[in-house]
Amino acid sequence: MPHTSPPDPHAPPRLLVSDHVAGRVSLLDLPDGAERAEVNHRHLAEHAGFLTLPGGLVASVDDRAGELLVLDPYGPDAGRPLVRRRIPVAVPAEHLAGDPEGRRLAVTTGLGRNEEAWTGLLTAVDLDAPDGAVAVRVRGRTGEPGVTVLGGALPLVVVRHREPGELLVHRHRELMESAPSCPPAVPVRRIALPDDDGHGDAHDPLTGRLFAAAGSGVHRARREGDDLTLETPLPWSAEGRSGGRGYYLRLDPVRRMLWSCVRGGPGDPGQWPDWSNDAWWHHLDTGETGRLDLGPGLVFRLAVTARHIAFTRVHPDGDELILLTAPPTAGSRPEAGARLPLPAMSGAPRRGGTPWDGVQRRAVAASPGGSLVAVSRGGHGEIHVFDADKAAPVSTLTVPTPLDDGGHLALVTPGDGAHADPVGR
């Protein structure tokens, strides 16, 4: 991509707010909420999320236009547009990931608004392709695959499938050399997984390991040349707490930890207020693993700040933001921190119905370079900003659209190193 100067290190944090239902993206200064830019008629893929790239850039997929958007949150300060590049990709976008350099990306396709998976298209992207071949689409298995992109001299695209569970290893270079018309892509390696319920992916650029969450634990694989070698899975059970499984997996680049939320309890979605939730963590360098009780209800995604991990918990008795202290010293143990109330959503999930169909939700975002946490209030067009270090609310921001389904958020701080987590969130 054309070179631009990095963001001013003294620039304020910024919040990207995507209302994927209304089709609007807002760029707000924090903490006051001043709008620096807006983009309309853009329906970003909420499940694929935002992928932080080096140089202060952020990528996401417009699910209606079928485009990968490279966003420049500090570009408007220098007279540049918020949308820096538009690259055609296959949709509906399920997952988005990049290599540690932020040059080679991959986008998988999933269900979208369909009852069954109907496309197996995988898009490989090279943001600095010397011959102008920026994006290539190939065909693989249908499903709802996760994806990671391993860096090095010969980057690999690893697609994680379920039903049946397996890892498919592709050379990124060969994907980019594929013929037109979406030809079948033959992986250089297929690795069977023991579970058919994979959900959640992470990649550690420092070691080249990848991680996939499943019912039996977190499967691990390390790179050896063009191949992957499976390692012993990490169990969900820890510190005397057992049961449940994590449906989300995230790398914390500050403390070099993996995080998830382990959900247990009744299988009936209508009984979601009785689900148990534990924060699950694993130190990548020490191998230590633990769990902390978060309380009943719906807990899913999380956000990483400089000194805390932030979860939102939705429950009929009241929603809250949960902050766990996470000291950066290797071997240190996370501890339960503050619990801050969140204002109720008028369209919140109710007991007896599912917590995800036709109801409002919350998005949460933070930056590993700062203390601010942003939480959306679906259906109300509001974002509540907190200071995790002070365990206190800072401001309430409003946008001109309702943020139905909770929208999606990305909080960026100059030089925060968030690109060390190279999987879309």
TrEMBL record:
Residues 327-354 are annotated as: Disordered. This is Uncharacterized protein.
